[in-house]
Each structure stands twice: as structure tokens, then as C-alpha cells.
């Protein structure tokens, strides 16, 4: 039996977008009926997360060569590792928040152009200072992508598809992680040169240039245009998005909203801490901060931890360069096996985010992360094959539960809970707070590994994971299946 569709005489932007999905005869919860333009926007948005996964986590493979070439001290290694994350912290708020003022599409293009420029600079760097500057610039671009890519997707697609497609885009971070590791293995296997790390950045540059150009050819968010009282432009953008003739009639009405017009860049951030939004700000930012403590600490330094616990046979008999490359390849292969569970986890998140709910998955995910990290900590006290099995079990469980829960859900939630006029600022602020946690781990992890040891450090992350579950439960606000205009 065909489902009866009630068409209102006046429609909001989201009701027009949702109409495609609800009027389709295919009623399966896994069906996603969308126009080619909507799919194009989604595909272009996935590359921001792909580049983040590839470039940030590739740092663990490039750092040994950078250390040899530029004679980096332990402090300089920590600064280099954390500079890209500090850039993400600044970029998510300072640049990403500008999409509330200047438009989603404009910042969507600018961020990818900035990424391409900084990749060129990184690949041609010949000093520690230039490495630092361009690595920070890459972080600025990737940080801007956190709110803008999320909003380009969530403000352009049907409500029932939002969770699946935002998480689908987020899944490309895990694909990027694996691609970055495989790229490193391939380059280091066939390029026995101290400059091999430059080729890794050149490989990332080629698709970034193509994506920059492609982003010029998509429409601006109709939601944002209407929030700026540009109704005619919003109607034009909506028709293009939904593949309707520009001569067709698609009158739109604004959704009721008690938000005042933002008068400055800072004004929107102040509103995040008003009583009305304070709990949502805490929910969007604090669990994400806690999650990034483990994600980036374990993610970037998995090869280092494997080396510390398993004490693999070191390559000998060659010079420092060839020994470094051989050992990096050895540890990268183990890291690739562990990181495959990132992809499995996010696929499960896509499947269950609507039926189970964001909050439950985030809480269960944090608890699962704690169990995985506890297994990894226990492995430190074991010996022989049992040590290796327990360590890999712990890290693989951590990666799976992390991407099923907090790593995926925090990104999804941050772009959903705020109203349109401060949505980019809310999502950007949450991402910035999260990256502060990532910076702490990137900078302090090598120091803490040496100071307190792997066992104690992993136990600390067990405690923070349980804290993340508690904060999520206390401030929970379910967004699954809700119309984004009603947030």
C-alpha cells in the first residue's frame, strides 16, 4: 500500500528535502533516495575526514625520518606532532565558525585550498621552522572542515539519512588512516631515501587539488541563506539541490526561531554558554575531549607502544637510515592490522546510530574502550605469545568500540544539537575542545611513556573513558531521527 503523503500549503526547507525520501515507494530504513547533487555534496565532504586520517596519523611514520634529517630533539618531536592538532583546534573555531557569517560553501572551498597550499609547503620544507608552520597550516584547514563538512551534509539531506551519511563521511577518517599507513609502507619499501617522507605529502596533494576545484560547483546551504534573510537565493539553491526547474514554484517559509541575528563573530560563541545551550555545549565538547585523549594518543603512537611492549627485533647491519626505515615498516604493518577495526566499528555505527541511538552507542562505546585499554594494560604484565595476543586484542577492541561509539557519535552530535545560526560555532567549539585533548596526548604521550610507563598510562586512559560514559549519561540529548530544524 502506498504511504499517504500530506503536503502542507507552505513548506520549510527541510520539509522539501524530506519530501524526496518520504514520497519514495522504497520504505526500507536502509534506503537513501537522494539527488545527484546531494550525493555530490556528500562525496566532496568525505575528503576532509579522509585527509585528516591520512595526514595526522601518517605523522607516526614520517616522524622517524624527520628526526634523522632535521636532528630533532624529543621536545621538537612533540611540538611537530602536536602542531597539526593545534592547527585543528584553532581552525575549527576561528575558521569553521566563520561559515555562520560568510556561508558554508565559501569556507568549504577555502579550507581545501589552504590544505593544498600547505601540503606543497610541507613537501618542500627544508627547515624545522617551515615544517612547523606548514604542519600548523594543514591543521587549520582540517579544523575548518569539522563544522563546515558536517553542515554541508546535514543541511542538504533528508532527516532519516542524516545519521547514516554524516557517519558515512566520518568513516573516511578511518579509511584515510589505513590509506596513510599503506602509503607509508609502499613509499618506504621502494624509496630508500631520507626524503621519502616528502613523497607521502605529494601523494596527498594530488586529490586535494581536485577536490578544491570540484567544491566550486555545488550550491550553498539553503538553510544558511534563509537564516540571512536571502529567501530568493535560498529557493534557487534548494531547486538546484533537489534537481527542480528554476521556473518551478517552491515557496519556502522560515522556521520559528527565537534567535537574534549574530552581530559579531564572538557573539555566537557567547550564546553557547547561555543557560539555554550550556548543557548541549557540555555534551558536544566534553565527551569529545575525553575521547580524543585516547584516540590520538593510541592512534599516533601505536607503533611506539608496540615497540615498547613487544620489543621487536631491531633491524641491524645497515646505517641509521636503512635501520629506521626497516623498523618503521615492521611496526606500520602491525598498526595496519589493528586499524582495520576502525573501519568495522564505524560501519556498525552507521547501521545502528538511528535504531539504537547516539547516546547509547556513545556510552557503550566509552565502556568498551575502557575494557580494551584494560586488556592492553594487562598485556604489559604478560610474557611471550600471550602478551602479543592480549595487546592486539585490547587495541583492536578499543578501535572497534571507539568508532562504534564516541569517535563517531561525538562528531555527529556536535553538528546536530545547535540551531542553524550558531550551529557552525557550536560544532567548531566542540571540535576545538576535543583537539585540545588531542594536543595534550600528542605532546605528552612520548614524555609520559618514558616517565610513568605504558601500564600506568593505559590505566589512566581507562579512567578517562569511564568518565566519558558518565558525562554522556548525565547530559544526554537524543537527536536520532529528529528534523534538524527542530533542534
UniProtKB/TrEMBL annotation:
Residue ranges constituting the Major facilitator superfamily (MFS) profile domain according to the UniProt record: 41-477
Q: Predominant location of this chain?
A: membrane
Q: What GO MF terms are annotated? A: transmembrane transporter activity
Protein topology in the membrane: Multi-pass membrane protein
Q: Which UniProt keywords apply?
A: Membrane, Transmembrane, Transmembrane helix, Transport
InterPro entries named among the record's database cross-references? MFS_dom (IPR020846), MFS_sugar_transport-like (IPR005828), MFS_trans_sf (IPR036259)
Q: Which cell locations does it reside in?
A: Membrane
Gene3D superfamilies assigned to the protein according to its UniProt record, in alphabetical order: MFS general substrate transporter like domains
Q: Which family does it belong to?
A: Belongs to the major facilitator superfamily. Sugar transporter (TC 2.A.1.1) family.
> Know the name of this protein?
Major myo-inositol transporter IolT
Source organism of this protein record: Photobacterium piscicola
Q: What is the lineage of its organism?
A: Bacteria, Pseudomonadati, Pseudomonadota, Gammaproteobacteria, Vibrionales
